[in-house]
Amino acid sequence: MKSQPLSFIEKAGYSCGDAAANLVFMSMILFQLNFYTDVFGLSANTAAAILLWPRLWDAVFDPVMGVLADRTNTRWGKFRPWVLWTSVPWAVVMVLAYTAPDPAWGWSTGMVIAYAGITNTLLMTLYSMNNMPYSAMSGVMTADLNERTKLNSFRFVSVNVAQFAVGGLTLPLVAKFAQGADRAHGWQVTMSIWAVACLVLFLVTFFTTRERVRPIVESHTSPKQDFLDLLKNGPWIALVAYTVFQFGMLSLRGGAHYNYYHHYADKAAMFDFVAALGLTTPDAGGTGSLADSLGYIVHGTRDQLASSNVADVFNSIINMAGTATTIVVIMASMGLSARFGRRAIGVWCFGLCTLTACAMYLLPPDAVWAMLGLHILSAIVYAPTVAVMWSMYADAADYSEWQTGRRFTGMVFATIGFALKAGLALGSASFLWLLAGLFGYDTQAPTAPNAVEGYRVASSLVVGALFAACTVCLLLNKLDKQTTLRMSDELAQRRRKAGVDGDDANEGNGAVPVTA
């Protein structure tokens, strides 16, 4: 087939869009619940509902967005314009969603709840309107299989950089801007900074990318027919199931690991760990260092740990080490899929992830260096799957075109988006259901022995079971290396015969015109 190489600038520019999305996504995953309880003053149940229902709405809206995107026709393409159109509303609503009503306004509790629910729902809707078309772009920027994997590797390096920034800088910035004001002001200013960054990154993505792959026959079928045709797509079905398990695992693991490090890991051992890194001081006044200003210094001594921030510092180091490892391994593993095939990489890596996750159950509370080592090992075996799996979603879109002669990339990615958000919602809920149902978890007694055992089981054995389920789903996906290459070659031949080769048009501003 004809090669369609992408320039470094285009790959990097495309990756900026997902970096922007993760400034919102990781803020939601890490901080939004506590923001609603601590800053808005809502009860835990009310805050959970405000987080759950917009996310479920977001999942339902994704397929609708897929239909709209597949039927969008502009001189810039089908998907790329949505990144531009949503960039300014995204930034505005992001600030509003993290602006707490001032008590001086005299709002009732019901009004505060309504404001939180409406702004969060708007933010999630804009997330779908932007991120679903953005994700689908990877399937139409190039038809070259290896270039797609490289493109998604760039994308997920940027994702991890954004996650590193959000996880490491958000709370220190909130505290900084809260000085002389309050936490609400700190959150508003901090999220305004992230919102401006989102706007700039989205514009970079729009102006540096192109859509090249056009359908051989433009779709004139109904959304219902598109979905019925998808039900005949075996690889898509396997990937939908995989996505539910994968993102359910991520959300469950996030809550489980937080509790594992805060309530199971031995605080004295963690203190010795951070002390070895020079991150402790007995001086209550602090060290005046940059690390201290960012909250990374543990104040006090080894016998004063009950109310210290030692677990926060250790947990942050663990997370940063995993993220940094993931970035390096993603960059180093770009050529693996070309050699072994995406499906094989996914199966082997998720199989190894199953083992590393289960091994966590064997660690005693004071084995903090082993915890770090196992976390880094898990990041090493997990990282190659990140770009590979998103490339496989584009392969599933190719498979539909190969089967039916019609391409509906937006519907494929929209339904994957539905599975992703459903997995996130179910993962968080399942963690609480598991603790309550099997371990008698009481939120008022988070350090009870039964609760601690629940954190330990969820962090290891349950996460391992979900990794194993991902492995099975990929084994059921028949798009191995040979099938994918044959499908790609046949589609390239069809496009050449139809006169819509991906590199054959270059008009005006560099975009491929898409006409009905």
TrEMBL record:
Region feature Disordered, mapped onto this chain: 496-516
InterPro entries associated with the record: MFS_2 (IPR039672), MFS_trans_sf (IPR036259)
Keywords: Membrane, Transmembrane, Transmembrane helix
Domain of life: Bacteria
Transmembrane segments: 12-33, 82-99, 105-127, 156-175, 187-209, 230-252, 317-338, 345-363, 369-390, 411-435, 455-477
Keyword Acetylation listed: no
CDD domains: MFS_MelB_like
Entry's family note: Belongs to the sodium:galactoside symporter (TC 2.A.2) family.
Protein's UniProt name: MFS transporter
Phylogenetic lineage: Bacteria, Pseudomonadati, Pseudomonadota, Betaproteobacteria, Burkholderiales
